[in-house]
Amino acid sequence: MTTSAQTVLAPARAKTAADSATVRRRQGFQHGGWFVAPFLVLFALFVIWPLLRGLYLSFTDANISGDSANFVGLDNYREALQDPLMWDTLGHSAYFTLLVVPCITVLAFLLAMLAHHIERAKWLWRLCFFAPFLLPSTVAGNLWQWLFNPGTGMINHVFGIETPWLTDKSYALLAIVIATLWWTVGFSFLLYLAALQSIPDHLYEAAKLDGANAWHRMTHITLPMLRNITGLVIALQILASLQVFDQAVVMMDFTPGPEGATRTFVQYTLEEGFTSYRVGYASAISIIFFVIIAAVALARMWLLRNREEGAVR
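RESULT FIELD:
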């Protein structure tokens, strides 16, 4: 009899528990929704709406004067795909990215290793490596513009060279790369440092007992444990480097550099919109740039998912 009663009551209890869980989830969503609502409103106002507005303008011949815009269909996109200057600026941004991402990844890792293993004045080393990242882009750009100045800058005087960093197209983009490495490496350094501190010490102790030297410990413990953070650093740096603008414009005094060598894609978009007053065309090339960045982000997510699935198998 007892068994029969339990058999009858079990489904009822399970249903009651499920209903209670559903009610709790709904209540949690209702309460949490109020906390998320301000962000959602701002996100819709400053991200979603500008994106939709830009998408609409890309199909028109809108200009900055505010005159009525005429619908031109895909004309702006056709012109953009045939615009050699757009492809040149995209090439500048891509070349800048290819130079910055590997260098900043390796440099951030080495600085993190140094700050993690050094014994004296750890806080000072960490502050020195991270502090430049706190500077505004205008301050960092003006500082390196002075350092690279052929007449008064320190770079040429310290190394005894006479390189026209900011006036020669062969060196101008390299100068921006060097300034960017110094200015932004602190962020990736901080990510690596936090990841290094999360690696359990007993792994290194066990490796030492097995006779592993420092190189083996780094290649078989440190680097594999930092694989995910390395992927994150690379992804963030690719997205940030493709959108390079501030330091390039400031160091070149708001010009495209010698023979346009430092004109980036973002700078070209702003020139078309606010100098040539072609808002519709500028919107079209900005949408193209958005698609490129979205493709890079999706490719990164796809690679990460495939790698995780391979690791599980």
